[in-house]
Amino acid sequence: MEVKKLSISWQFLIVLVLILQILSALDFDPYRVLGVSRTASQADIKKAYKKLAREWHPDKNKDPGAEDKFIQISKAYEILSSEEKRSHYDRYGHAGESQGYQKQREYRFRHFHENFYFDESFFNFPFNSERRESIDEKYLLYFSYYVNEVVPDSFRKPYLIKITSDWCFSCIHIEPVWKEVVQELEGLGVGIGVVHAGYERRLAHHLGAHSTPSILGIINGKVSFFHNAVVQENLRQFVESLLPGNLVEKVTNKNYVQFLSGWQQENKPHVLLFDQTPAVPLLYKLTAFAYKDYLSFGYVYMGLRGAEEITRQYNINSNTPTILVFKEHINKPADVIQARGMKKQAIDNFIAQNKYLLAARLTNQKLFHELCPVKRSHRQRKYCVVLLTAEATKLSKPFEAFLSFALANTQDTVRFVHVYSNRQHEFASTLIPDGEAFQGKSVVSILERRNTGGRVVYKTLEDPWTGSESDKFILLSYLDQLRKDPALLSSEAVLPDLTDELAPVFLLRWLYSAADYISYCWSNMFYNNWREMMPLLSLIFSGLFVLFGTVMVQAFSEASDERESSPPGKEDAHEKAGKAEPSFTKENSSKIPKKGFVEVTELTDVTYTSNLVRLRPGHMNVVLILSNSTKNSLLQRFAFEVYTFTGSNCLHFSFLSLDKHREWLEYLLEFAQDAAPIPNQYDKHFMERDYTGYVLALNGHKKYFCLFKPQKTVEEEEALGSCGDLDSSLHLGESRGKSSHGLGSRAIKEKLSKLSLWMERLLEGSLQRFYIPSWPELD
């Protein structure tokens, strides 16, 4: 019995070791082992390898794990030193020694259970069968490959992607349908991908797939989920629905001339497909999407009554699908392909050979790069013959002559293009010689690009281009001479970049982007992809909440302003009602204050130490100076002005009786420069000076204060009393002998009308501070 237990323990230990080995193999990252970045050069990789190999060599390093570490370093260098293995690892996550991580995982699993004499049939589930892996493994996607390859390629063809995982019964049910769809759509040019959610969780989450199986399509970098029954016809319609609706124009007898004549405005060749099917074939739509930037596509349904004239015009065999390419001449196609059951490869080759017009117009820098590539070697010279002409609604004689010359050209090294000099003025002025003979005339120039920075060598014909036979003969002689002597291009210049003539205006681009985003959000709101919509919904509700809060605050603020601007009679009535009474007692401090109520304590010899001298660091006491006669009016207005600042725990509010503590106040004001009289400056009005309405912000810990000086009367200059805004005169003269006894309640309140602005500056720290050596005793 003990031997049996020991055998089971050993088996469990071996299984645990094998599992740890498998996990360590899956987590192996050669970049992390060597300590280099993914963009490191071969020199950096070799340098890091030599350094680590010397450090971890088993003969020099006696660490027990040195041998395993050295093996990992060697393996990492073996992968990264080979460009093929490194590229394979960057793309698939493994170095390519096996057919993929699933194959490797299955091999290890089988090797393990064979050593323990398990029955092979016991593990032969359809979830991990060799047949299923052989279907999906070819299309497995990894995050880096998806971002770097699939997303850019989705602007040329749509992708159909399946999200799967192990032990997924529904994945097995859709397997036969998926296989048939892949065989059909891949042959038409649709990209296929498979994401294993168990091993590529990052990619599955990035795509928004939170359940398996899921099928989604990607086009122009956007993800769309498939929500119907998984049958072949539904998947085919789903792929077709991904494509834009305006890719192929329906052409009949009524509009074929207008369609083919659009080459001049669109600067593209036009393609016509003649077929007997009412709907446009999916293969043709996919081809139109792949080449939408280069050609315009139309479809003629030959079974329609309105197509007899166009079919007869171009001598089309009604029993065979036919594709015609039209360039500058709409009466005769430039190229024809006709076959039953046309394959994608044949169509691609046919379209690729006819991507450009015979003498295309240079409308942007990208087209210039493609038609006039940079010289790479002496054997790969490419010359561009450029016609610089004015824009015209109809074909001019110089352009028609230039076009006929381009049509007769047989040299592969020469391209013919034209430029509207009025639209590309800087480009044209670089090539056109100075002189009155060339003004307003067409000019032909031969150029060769030397680098991507715009440097060219060129030769401009000595006379303007009129399209005469002599002009053609001169141009032909130059081209023949150029084949023997490239030094004919003697002039050199740097061409400016071409402006994009066909780019939509900003408003249209914005509208297109907004429409795409709205349609994307609309489609997601009606399906189960709510996780992807949560940030947008959160943003919308946050905006609505902020808007609602702003409206409510503004409404209450307007109500307060109306109360403040009410007539004096109503204001006195409100005062009698006791609406703005502040609370003074400690009992009221535990209650929740209503709007306009502030807890204000009197600064006396009892509360002086706790409220000022021993005030905690960072705290300030805002003290209102009042007299017995102005106490009620000033406290009401003081509570109203400072109410919005009561949310700060660092501010305390008090009041000081001028009748009791005038000497203490005047001692403090001596340190505020001219805010109070000098002690030796006695006069008959000294004891009658009115300080009611002054406000002090006292910092007990740092021993400084800031001062608010009120305005005396409404008629006087409106001055904000602050530490940096003090008046040295203190209203000498008539106002010196006045007090607040003769003023009304409204006039007294007006003294604090600017207090809220001063409080804001106090919290900002922008007020002047007056420091004192120590706080005086409060008698």
UniProtKB/TrEMBL annotation:
Residues 121-244 form the Thioredoxin domain. PROSITE patterns: DNAJ_2 (PS50076), THIOREDOXIN_2 (PS51352). Residues 560-579 have a biased composition (Basic and acidic residues). One of its GO terms (biological process) is regulation of autophagosome size. Residues 559-590 are annotated as: Disordered. Residues 1-25 form the signal peptide. It comes from Microcebus murinus. GO terms for cellular component: endoplasmic reticulum membrane. Keywords: Endoplasmic reticulum, Membrane, Signal, Transmembrane, Transmembrane helix. This is DnaJ heat shock protein family (Hsp40) member C16. Its main location: endoplasmic reticulum. Residues 29-93 form the J domain. It comes from the Eukaryota. The keyword Repeat does not apply. It is found in: Endoplasmic reticulum membrane. It is a single-pass membrane protein.
